[in-house]
Design brief:
single chain, 303 residues, 35% helix
Length: 303
């Protein structure tokens, strides 16, 4: 199928360019059990297999995605970009709309006809939830992946569905470290003052100008000696004893402060400096804010 110029422009400007502007580099991992890499290689080698392969890809997505995933339409295409044959996989939200047409009449008048379009999938405001562009680079199957539904985040099941992994592991390692640390601190039987101190230290390290993150160094510097063993064992094995680039892409929404929730529905957002300076004091049964209100306003209720 050869696209007309206007359709080609729409696909490039409305779908591909906005989506892949923040695309993540991904690479096929031999440890994957997903059938997608084999199907992609087949389509790249034999364009006539596109239809049958796309059916298998759609069925695999249906069985892979969680029950909470939004409904959508799966699309697969073979494209040429930069002289390289590539495959595009996309999940777009289903839309419907009305089309209005002017039909000239024999008497010189115009009749308007409205048609309901129930299978509209790519309007100018439609959301492309997940999209991947895949190709061969030498002997390696590589690509770009975007999860626009989650902004800078990504759905783990979509990576597993593709059978790929992030080419740049630093952002994933930072995310694993932060999630493990916050989950452990929140669930441990530490005094509340200690929990606040540990979280404030974590927030400070994430916001610091240092280009590297070393979990072992963090534990030695900020965790009390009697707690270091428990904290270390709570970390994933792949981040316990290594130093990596501090890429906070996947945890950018957590950088800058800490959030304290009470059992009676009060939420306090504070900076690490506020905790360190004593402007916010966390005690066993209360949170003390040392400062007079500077303004009053309405806001969202804490979740």
């Amino acid at each position: 199928m050869v696209l007309d110029l206007e359709t080609d422009r729409f696909i490039r400007e409305e779908m591909l360019q906005p989506s892949f502007a923040k695309g993540r580099e991904i690479v096929y991992t031999n440890a994957s059990n997903s059938p997608i890499p084999g199907l992609i290689s087949g389509v790249l080698g034999d364009p006539t297999s596109l239809v049958s392969a796309s059916v298998d890809m759609a069925r695999h997505l249906h069985t892979s995605q969680p029950g909470t995933a939004s409904a959508g339409v799966f699309m697969c295409g073979r494209v040429t970009s930069g002289g390289i044959e590539r495959v595009v996989l996309m999940k777009a939200e289903h839309n419907e709309g009305m089309q209005l047409r002017q039909i000239p009449q024999a008497d010189g008048t115009v009749r308007f006809e409205a048609q309901h379009l129930n299978e509209l999938i790519l309007g100018s405001k439609a959301q492309v939830f997940k999209i991947a562009l895949l190709w061969m680079a030498g002997n390696d199957l590589v690509g770009l992946m975007v999860d626009r539904q989650n902004g800078f985040g990504y759905a783990e099941y979509f990576l597993e569905y593709l059978g790929f992994d992030l080419a740049q592991q630093a952002e994933k390692l930072v995310e694993q470290f932060v999630k493990a640390m916050t989950a452990h601190i929140d669930s441990a039987s530490y005094p509340n003052e200690k929990k606040a101190r540990y979280l404030a230290a974590l927030a400070t390290v994430l916001e610091s100008p240092s280009a590297k993150l070393n979990p072992s160094k963090f534990i030695a510097e900020f965790i009390d000696p009697q707690d270091r063993g428990g904290v270390a064992s709570a970390l994933p094995i792949q981040v316990q004893n290594m130093e990596f680039t501090k890429d906070t892409t996947l945890v950018h929404h957590l950088v800058g402060g800490l959030r304290l929730r009470t059992s009676n529905g009060v939420t306090v957002d504070a900076s690490p400096e506020a905790v360190a300076s004593g402007a916010v004091e966390v005690e066993e049964n209360r949170i003390v804010v040392n400062g007079a209100p500077s303004s009053f306003d309405l806001g969202r209720a804490p979740r």
